[in-house]
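Z., the sequence and structure:
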Amino acid sequence: MAVMTEYEFRVLNFPRDASRSDVRQVIADHAEYGHWELARSRLYLGGARRVWLRRRIIRVRRTA
């Protein structure tokens, strides 16, 4: 029986004046303290940046 991994996602939007180091620090904080991982990063034409973070949803099964 194959088990599909389920993820929850969080989307972060950064304005065009946010520096790369600031964006990197925010992503690192989410990864370290919230157990998020980088799923996708997109840089738009105007300079705005959107980042998708994901983490696994762990379902607890009843054993008794």
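The beta strands are 7-14, 37-43, 49-56. Helices lie at 20-34.

Let me know what you think.
H.
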